[in-house]
Specification:
This is ascorbate ferrireductase (transmembrane). It is a multi-pass membrane protein. Its cofactor is heme b. Pfam families: Cytochrom_B561 (PF03188). The chain is an all-alpha fold. It has a single domain, classed as Four Helix Bundle (Hemerythrin (Met), subunit A) (Up-down Bundle), CATH 1.20.120. 80% of the residues lie in helices and 0% in strands. It contains seven helices and no strands. The longest helix is centred in the first third of the chain and has 36 residues. It is globular and about 65 Å long. The protein starts with a helix and ends with a helix. 27% of the residues are buried. Bound molecules: protoporphyrin IX containing FE. Protoporphyrin IX containing FE binds next to helix 2, helix 3, helix 4, helix 5 and helix 6. The site of protoporphyrin IX containing FE has 27 residues, from helix 2, helix 3, helix 4, helix 5 and helix 6.
């Protein structure tokens, strides 16, 4: 009996290690692939898909995986160092997101096209606003004395929950970007499905990490 639960937990850990490694790989390869498809630097538009993938697929995924007990690249670092890596990566993500949004907005002004007229544009705008609000919430965790309302642990729980929602919004925006006419004209067949798999995979891994480490634990403690 004890032996079979040992095998179970080893299998479970191996699966978590494999899915964590796959998430790192998907986040990185997706960003590189998008920069190739958009032919980065050949037009103003090309910077939008690249900066958004860099923001939400690479920096934001890595910023959350920093806390993964299985696949964090910062596993051997102290909690304090991981927190620092987390906010630096989130800051880089927000800078890329704001720049990417500014670029697509300006590009549309140049071409006289309407703004926020597609699901991708609308959900994308909400995602960037969410990410900025999430950063503000994060600052109050770094400097707890700034906010007196709610206990620190309650605010951490809110930060984790709304962060997860924001991350899933980011994955949805990436996916909707891949449904755009521009992307589906450039990438078709199996390559399109492989691309769509990337935010799906990282979304599942992050969802599993946050709910295991935070939400389930908090619930079982109460
Ligand atoms: C989470 C990442 C992303 C966010 C937050 C985002 C956000 C946005 C926003 C807000 C707009 C509308 C701007 C306006 O109407 O003035 C837009 C447009 C656009 N984006 Fe993204 N984007 C993201 C990723 C991508 C990706 C990965 C692609 C390509 C694969 C892409 C392709 C496009 C295209 C073609 C447009 C112009 C057509 C439209 O408005 O739907 N985006 N994006």
């Amino acid at each position: 009996m004890a032996q079979s639960s040992d095998v179970d937990s080893r299998l479970h850990r191996t699966l978590r290690l494999i899915s964590g490694a796959a998430a790192h790989l998907a986040a990185f390869v997706f960003t590189i692939y998008i920069s190739c498809v958009s032919q980065l630097g050949t037009s103003l538009f090309s910077w939008h898909p690249f900066l958004m993938s860099l923001a939400f697929s690479f920096f934001m995924t890595e910023a959350i995986l920093v806390f993964s007990p299985d696949s964090s690249l910062f596993r051997s670092f102290s909690r304090k160092a991981r927190v620092r890596a987390h906010w630096i990566l989130q800051l880089l993500s927000s800078l890329c997101a704001v720049l990417g949004l500014g670029i697509i907005y300006y590009n549309k002004v140049l071409h006289g096209k309407p703004h926020f007229s597609t699901w991708h544009g609308l959900v994308g705008l909400l995602t960037v606003l969410w990410a900025l609000m999430q950063n503000t919430g994060g600052i109050t965790l770094l400097y707890p004395k700034l906010v007196q309302r709610w206990t620190l642990s309650t605010r951490k729980l809110y930060h984790a929950t709304s962060g997860l929602l924001g991350y899933l919004l980011g994955c949805t925006s990436l996916f909707l970007g891949m449904c755009s006419l521009w992307f589906s004209a450039h990438v078709t067949g199996g390559s399109w499905y492989l691309c769509a798999l990337c935010p799906l995979l990282t979304g599942l891994v992050v969802m599993n990490q946050v709910s295991n480490a935070y939400l389930y634990r908090k619930r079982s403690q109460s």
